[in-house]
Write a structure and sequence with these properties.
The protein is of the alpha+beta class. It has an eight-stranded antiparallel β-sheet. Strands 11-10-9-12-13-15-14 form a seven-stranded mixed β-sheet, sandwiched between helices. It is globular and about 75 Å long.
């Protein structure tokens, strides 16, 4: 039998289902050996799942509600074992031969890592998490818990008193981590603007802004924390999301933040000082980077997502030296993502940017955790039409990459 409500559901950061039953193919459609799920944040579908057969992997995104339903339906029925992790707990579900599922918890922050503790209710676990971690969250964050932050309150991350909602603690952490990365590039942007005699407010463009937690966060950082005049535009393809964010900005009386519906590949507007692109899918990231370079953005923050382009071109026979790496789907997928982003970083350097590749948030939080951060390193007069040699990685594997194609088509 499956799980009942009294042994489920706490906020999780990751879950791994293993030891498939004979029913797994009947229930899920394929003979999966395990499923790994990670919290990724940044969108309505906050969880990223990888389904593994013997030789292949398949992907799916879940909302929190969909994840809850998936686990309820599959723990004990499709898989005998499941290990979930929260900030403080490791929760193990074990199903015996009779189909009875039991739940064990251990406190992963305890000095005795192996000691199982008495199970807590979901409410008690959430309260325990909030109380235990509040001190460590507050001291180094740009936005402090206990501070009244209207946009976080409106988005359900904070209560009216400024307390972080336990189930949104990961979103609060993600917002602060992102603001740290933004804060690092602001001095260089201002230096370049001052050197050019540019007195205009900071122009910021957020491609694929989605639900816009981080867009609102940047506006709050600049206007409320650093007192820097700015104008911010969020661009997204979904009309309903754009309307929701526009209504929220209007309700909060934010005058310097607007949202528009549009395609990254076709967008035109004011030259931005900072371009943000978080989880723009596949080659949408390349269009965002190309736009930033063409408009000579002074800084770029990009967290790529779903790098399918090169993966679709590779096979186990693409390069015999790397045949073992390319043979298995999961290896090939991860290698393709690294190859894609390495080429992007190299091309940005050739376009005159000082580039860093940073961890956005830790691997427990999201599998899409790498940020490409670039700051303009040359004056506009030093850039001309780029006559680029084919990057060695593309030549080695005989593949094409969209940003390289875009750079070769344009005058920089």
């Amino acid at each position: 039998m499956g799980l009942t409500n009294d042994i489920f559901f706490v906020m999780i950061l990751s879950a791994t289902l293993s030891k498939p039953t004979k029913q797994v193919q009947e229930i899920l459609g394929k003979n999966y050996e395990r499923v790994k799920i990670r919290f990724k944040g940044g969108s309505e579908k906050a969880y990223y799942a990888e389904f593994f057969t013997e030789k292949q992997s398949f992907h799916q995104n879940f909302s929190e509600k969909e994840l809850e339903e998936f686990l309820k339906k599959n723990i004990g029925l499709s898989f005998k074992n499941c290990v979930e992790r929260t900030e403080e707990k490791e929760i193990t579900f074990l199903t015996n031969k009779k189909g009875k599922t039991s739940r064990l918890e251990k406190n992963i922050s305890s000095t005795d890592k192996g000691a199982f503790v008495k199970p807590l209710s979901a409410k008690a676990a959430a309260n325990n998490f909030s109380n235990h971690s509040s001190a460590s969250r507050v001291k180094n964050y740009i936005i402090k818990e206990g501070t009244s932050v209207p946009f976080l309150q409106a988005l359900g991350v904070m209560t009216d008193s400024g307390k972080v909602v336990a189930s949104k603690a990961d979103k609060f952490r993600q917002v602060n981590r992102f603001l740290e990365l933004v804060n690092d590039v602001i001095p260089e942007i201002l230096r370049q603007k001052n050197a050019a005699g540019d007195k205009e407010p900071l122009q910021i463009l957020d491609f694929g802004s989605g639900k816009s937690y981080l867009t609102f966060a940047v506006q709050y950082l600049l206007e409320n924390v650093k007192k820097i005049p700015c104008q911010i535009v969020g661009v997204d393809l979904k009309e309903d999301v754009v309307k929701t964010c526009s209504d929220l900005a209007q309700g909060l009386k934010i005058q310097n933040l607007k949202f528009v519906c549009g395609d990254i590949a076709e967008y035109s507007g004011k030259n931005p000082d900072l371009v943000i692109s978080l989880h723009a899918c596949d080659i949408a990231t390349d269009y965002a980077l190309n736009f930033a370079v063409l408009r000579k953005a002074k800084a770029i923050l990009s967290v790529p997502c779903c790098q399918r382009e090169i993966n679709s071109q590779l096979s186990k026979n693409s390069n015999q030296t790397f045949s073992s790496l390319l043979k298995y789907g999961i290896f090939r997928e991860r290698f393709s993502a690294l190859l894609t982003d390495a080429v992007r970083a190299e091309l940005l350097e050739k376009a005159g940017y000082k580039v860093q590749v940073l961890e956005f948030i830790d691997m427990e939080g999201t599998p899409k955790n790498l940020m490409i951060r670039g700051t303009l390193n040359v004056s506009a007069s030093e850039t001309g039409k780029m006559d680029l040699p084919l990057p060695s990685l593309l030549e080695t594997f005989g593949v094409k990459q969209k940003l390289f194609d875009l750079f070769c088509q344009e005058k920089m």
